[in-house]
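tool_call: predict_structure(chain=1)
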Amino acid sequence: MIMRPIVKAIVVLAVVATVVHPAHAEVVNRIVATIDGEPITQIELERYAEVAKKRPGGDQAVVDQKAILDELVLDRIIAKQVEALGLKATDQQIDNYIESIRSRNNLSDEQLREALKQQGMTWDQYRVQVRADIERANLINREIRAKVNVSPEEIERYYKAHLDEYGTSPKMHARLISFVVPSDASVADKAAIRAKAEEVHKLAADGGNFAKLAKEYTQGPAAEEGGDIGEVDPKEMQPEFAKAVAGMKAGDVSPLIANAQGFHILKIEPGSTETHRPLAEVSEEIKEKLYKEAMESRYDRWLNQDLRARYHVETFL
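tool_result:
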């Protein structure tokens, strides 16, 4: 990397000005980066690193100086862009932001200050951080958010390409014939009930009129309606029923189903088999997802390419 003459001069001056006794030559401050010729010094970097450690999730251990410098450079670039576009945060905006944080967490002013103190952050440092957060949000809103849009066509294309994400259990229009086994039934009585159920099941499976058989034999619901119990969702059925109807289609008769209540026969009738949530129902959900993805993509490109390209940055670590 070739430094411009003025930068070289600044670097030399910084080194000369910080040399201690020749026997113990030591650089206590030096230029570690420049943005359009404006220097960032080692001391500024160290101060920034100390503040970064105190942020939520910050590492109190040794930090990667190059990564911290990159973050500091980015913060300076954002500050320059905020200044250039007149997006500086006002004291009132900072006060309102802090008040919203305090209210959301049910903290008094004293409690908030104590919480910051425990994190090793002064009130002034906190206000500086809040100011930076607001100004960054202002810049993002202007440079990115207002330029991201998700069209109805994009939503529909995503929906069609990801139908499996919006599947629902197919609802089955069913008829039911039930033979109830009383709780006090003897072994012989239970065997007789099962035999009758098997007889009726054979008639139904061989194409007999299911509705007529239900009216004649069922002890379950909707006997007068030929055992018509309407639409049912396999996911809401008892396990024995859900297992029996798995893979069944309209016109099929289930195997004989046995459970604690007795013996049962189901027939699937033509009816609603909607297997996907309609587009109108999931449109907003898809829009939010696509908008978030577009924001993240545009933000990353803007932050790491577009914004940096507006400034000449040199680093010397």
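agent: Strands lie at 31-35, 38-41, 172-180, 228-232, 257-259, 262-269, 313-315. Proceeding to next step.
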